[in-house]
Queue: 2 jobs
Job 1
Amino acid sequence: MEKNSGIYIAGHKGMVGSAIVRKLQQEGFSNLILRSSRELDLTDQKQVINFFEEKKPEYVFLAAATVGGIQANNTYRAQFLYENLMIQNNVIHQSYVNGVKKLMFLASSCIYPKMAPQPIKESYLLEGPFEPTNEPYAIAKIAGVKMCENYNRQYGCNFISVMPTNLYGPNDNYDLETSHVLPALLRKFHEAKIKGLEYVEVWGTGIPRREFLHVDDLAEACFHLMETYHGNVSVNVGTGQDITIKELVEIIKKIVNYEGEIIWNSDKPDGTPRKLLDVTLIHSLGWKYKIPLEKGIKDFYKNKFQD
Ligand code: GDP
């Protein structure tokens, strides 16, 4: 990418898209093309056709998606399937039609089989059934990965995709019904502390293990791969380390300095028992995460809730 290349970041207001924008700006890219969902509805084929014809972006980061935590995935099942398929179909196909030089599609580690051996290698994709709570989202995202792969094969495109692990950082979603565990817990513990509540309710059993990556580290990885990687394998992006939800709860409790009780609500689902990515490939491609989990959460908490 040249410093004045037209680079379209789809989903620039979201957690991932906004982190990619910050990274590109830091690197001195001056011709970023940004459209909010109000200005450009990516599920609408006509609008996407007109936008690509008019703007002719040279590079595309496809970070726009309908996303959510375990409960949102399970509740808005049709919507997650429909909207993600429409967004991907429109953006990936128009990127091909309009000769985009390179596109990066953001997939997700939750599209791997529920019982995948750990750590999860890129080659385990489609080797077993999905976790039922996020099957619709997984089906949509896999379609996106396969579009990139097959547009490369049939049309000679240069479309790549990445599989980020669970992310956290600025511009996350804090709605307790639809968010992921890390922002949800920060908010719950913070509010319990401020309001002097005696306990915090946490979902599930605390036994599942998850890997967490700061979104600024992901943006570094996306930039690095966009500059250097060509290939059909959707590259895992993670830290290579995971913790139990119980351990995460303890870290957040300590950072927020909350002294009350914790109540485990086992009526809520645990989801996948473990989701740890094998990061051998991305290490061999020259990227490694930098932000340690406790430091990342501390800074995130300070910026979001304390300033
Ligand atoms: P997942 O990684 O797709 O399962 O999505 P989540 O980040 O939503 O959930 C991860 C794990 O954290 C699951 O085992 C949840 O049951 C657990 N968890 C505990 N408390 C919460 C909470 O308040 N919100 C969410 N979203 N998950 C929670």
Job 2
Amino acid sequence: MIMDSQGLSSKKPVVITIDGPTASGKGTVAQHLADKLGFHYLDSGALYRLTALSALRAKVALDDMETIADMAKSLPCAFRQGRILLAGEDVTDSIRAEEVGNTASKIAAYQPVRDALKALQVSFRQPPGLVTDGRDMGTVIFPDADLKVFLTASVAVRAERRYKQLLEKGFPANIDTLRKDLEDRDKRDSERKSSPLRPAADAVMLDTSFLGIDESVQCILDACAEKKI
Ligand code: C5P
């Protein structure tokens, strides 16, 4: 509860967080869930990818964390009708390239970059509610979330999903390289000091290796109903 100046209580908008490893399907599931509930949706990984794309384009050294944090602080981004804009340019597809994802994972290990993106992430918590996905949404950004989900799937299933996604978007892909990249990225995301990837103590665990999108969404809707969300 938040108290206003007259001592009246007001509840913060509902937040449902969906964290999990790369290519676990959390983005698609989170988007469908937000549509079903009529909530806003935040893909927090896109913010790290936008920062990575900006740094790559500006040819900033990837260990220059202060410059990259400054870029993150004033990221000229906008989310409009499912498209992601950077300084007015539609970069929805280009931020999905593997090079951008791998760079995002490297710069996401820097605490100043994470701090720079925090306020922007928190600002997405607006009525009637927010569904957000990432790595630390339930542990760090929204520790008071109304429902926290940790979504997983086996490495083999995730590599296969990412392979299909990339081919559909017209990017070249090799399944063995992808699997290795996924494992490297999982290791980096889980072992970093700043906001490592891990389930919140109060997270609901959901393994989607053998579940379709609709079934995964339904499991989360059931968890929402149990919590009266
Ligand atoms: O989810 P996605 O693969 O788009 O995220 C790209 C990278 O951004 C991840 O590998 C991870 O290192 C980083 N990330 C993060 N915290 C988040 C979301 C993404 O560290 N909340």
